[in-house]
Amino acid sequence: MTKIFLRSASALLFAAVAAGAQAFPSTSNPKIVTTAVGNSTFSPNMGLAFLSDGRMVFLGSATNTSSGNGAMGQGYILPPDGNNAVYIASGLSRTGSLTGVTFTKILDSLNGPAAGVVVVNDTVYVMERFAFYRIKSLAPTGGTALSKNATRMINIPTLDSTFTWNRGPTGHQWVFTPQYYNGRFYGNYSGCIIPGGTSNAPPTSTYAGALLSWAKDSIVPISPVNQGFVKEAGGLRSPNGLGSNGEYMIGSDNQGSFNPGCALRMYRPGQPQVTYGTRQSTTANAGGATGITNTLRNWAEDLPYQPPLIWIPYSPSASTSQPAYLNFGPYKGDWIAGDVNASGMGRLHVDQVDNSGNYQASWHLFSGSSINSAGTTEGKAINRIAVSPDSAIYVGTVLKIGNWPTGNPGPVFRITFKDTSVFEILAVRSRKNVTGDANGVEVFFSQPVNPATVSSSSFTLQQQNFMLGANYGCNTTLCTTKVPQVAGVLLSNDNRKAFITISTPDTSIGASHIGTIGVGFNGLGVWGGPGKQDRTLRVTVNNVTSATGASLMYNVAFMGWHFQANTRFDPANTDLVPSPSAISGRAVGPGASRLASSVSTHTLGGILNVHVDLPGQTTVSLYKLNGGLQQEKTGTGSFEFDTRSIGGGLHILRVQQGAAVYSRTVMF
C-alpha cells in the first residue's frame, strides 16, 4: 500500500499513519443510539472512568488547535496550565436527556497531556506525564492544583543506566490508561520511536515498551529512579489504551516499525513474561530497512513471543485506541475499540482456541463511521471508552481525523442499545469440519440465513501474512497475501452458522504465528523474515441474506489465525445454550438457588413478563429450542418480551446475575 504522510512526526500517542486510510463504511448500526453529552465539548479526552454512584471521571487535555506540527502532534508534553485537568461529570443517565450534565474540576496543573484515569473503590487515580497520583478529595476545598489535591504514588520510568533520550525528556513516552487488578495497577508504557515513527532509536530505559505493574497503596520514593515497577511483558510500540474485564486485559498497539498492523494484545495477570515483538531497529535486525544506525537492543527481545489476538490490517484500522469490555447488551462478552486515525468503532470477539490457553479473535463492524458525524461536522477520533454502572457506553473523543489527531475539543458520547433486529456477522472462529479431517472457519450470524442464497461462491477469503521488520508499517516484503480456496460450505441445523471448508494443498495457507511460543530470540528470521508469519484471515460474505430477506449490515470480518482449532463444527449449535433436556429448572453458580427462587413469569396478551425479585443487574434471555437467541434484556426488576414477534411454542428462558444462572423452559 502506498502511504502518504504529512510533514510532522509521529503523534503524541499514536503512530504516524496515512491520511487516506480506509475505514469501516458509513453504515450505521440500527442497534445503537448515540447521544452527545451536554457541556462536554471543551477538551480532548484522555481518560474516562466511573464512580459507583454513576458520576463520570473525565480527564481532559490542554487544547491545541494547530495543524500538523503543534505540541500534541510532535508528541511533547505541554506545561501545567490548568487545562490538563480531571473533572467529575454529574447528571448522566442511561436514558433521557444529557443536556444538563455538569462538569466540576477536581484537579488541574497536570503535566500533559496526561494519559489515563482509574477508579478503585471510589478513589480516583490519574496518570500524568511524570508520575501517577491519587486524588485526595472529590470535593476539594483547599484548591485543585496538583500540589494541593493529589498524592504522588510513583514516578513513571525515566532514564537509567547509560541510556539517553531519543527525542528529549518530554517526548512521546507515556504510561497509558492504567487498570486495576487484585491489589496492583497495570499500564502499557510506550516503546522508543523517533520523529517519523520508526524505532531506529536506542531504548531510553530497561522499561521501554513494557507492560508495567505496581502496588496499589505504596508510595515509592523518587530516588533512586525507576523503583516499584514489575515488567510483566515487553515489546510494545505505541500502546494507546488498556482495558480489563476482571479476568484478563486487552491493549491496543499502533502500527509502525515491527508492527505491520494494529495489534490487539492480551495479558493475563500472572502469565509468564513474554515479548509482543516490537524491537529497537538495530543494524543487526534491520530486516531489509535502510539507514538503521542504532546499536542498542530492547530488553524484551530475548523473551518468548506471544502473538496478538489479531493483527487488524491498515484498512480498516489505522491507530486503534482503548478497548472496553461489554458486560451487557446484545454483544455481551465482546469488546469494542475506537481508532484515532480512522472513523468508526470495531467489535472484538475473543476465542480461546480449544480451551488450551491459546487465544485469537475476530474483528467486526460495531458502529460504522456515521458515529463520528453526530453533533458537529468535524470528524471525531474515538480515544477512550468506559462502561457506566447503569449499562451505557461512554466514548471520549479527540479531533481531527487526518494523518493523526490534533487537540481540538470534542464531545463525549453516550451509546445505548435498541431492541432492534440486525442481520450481521457475530463471530468468525477456527474450526475443523464435522469429521475432523479438514480445516476451515465458522461464520456465526445473528439470524438464520436463507439457504438458497448460500454456496461456495458466497464466501471470499484472503489470508494476510504479517512479518515483523524495521520498515514502517506494511510493505511488499513484510506483508503478503494468499487466497485460500473455498472447498465447500455446510450450514448448521438452525442456519445461523456456516462452516467454510478450506482446500489447503498449499502449506502456506492456514494458521501460523511468528516464532515458537516459549522460545526466545531467534536471529535467523523470527523478525524481518523470511521466516514464520502471523496471519489474519479476511472473510467477505457475498449476497447472503437472512431467512426474512435482510442484507448484512456489513459483509466483511477479520479473524486472527495464529492457532488452528481442533474443535469440530457443531451443526446442532449446542455451544449457544445447554440442550433443552438438561436445563429445565436448572440453576448453576454461586447464589443460583436464591436466583431461581426469585424468578417469576406470567404471559398476557402476547407479552411475557419476567420478574426478578433481587437487587442488582440481571440479564434475561429467550432462546429457541435449537439455541437461537430471540431476545435479551439487561436491567433490574421486571422485563417484558413481545412473544408475538418470535412465535409461540416452547422456548428457553435464561436468567443470569453475576456468576449465577437459572434456566428453564417456558411456553407461550
What does this entry look like structurally?
It is a single chain. With 668 residues, the chain is mainly β. The strands form nine sheets. It has an eight-stranded antiparallel beta sheet with strand order 18-19-20-21-32-31-27-28, with no helix packed on it. A hairpin with an 8-residue loop joins strand 19 (335-337) and strand 20 (346-353). The longest helix is centred in the C-terminal third of the chain and has 7 residues, at 592-598.
Overall, the morphology is globular
Strand content: 25-35%
The number of distinct helices, counting runs of at least 4 residues, comes to 4
- Give the distance, in angstroms, between the N- and C-terminal Cα atoms: 56 Å
* Percentage of residues in helical conformation: under 10%
Largest sheet: 8 strands, antiparallel
Structural class: mainly beta
What is the radius of gyration computed over CA atoms, rounded to a whole number of angstroms?
25 Å
Question: What number is the mean pLDDT?
Answer: 83
Unreliable runs = 1-22, 64-77, 373-377, 518-526, 577-584
Total strands: the figure is 40
Strand order of the largest sheet: 18-19-20-21-32-31-27-28
In short:
The chain is an all-beta fold and 668 residues long. The chain contains 4 helices and 40 strands.
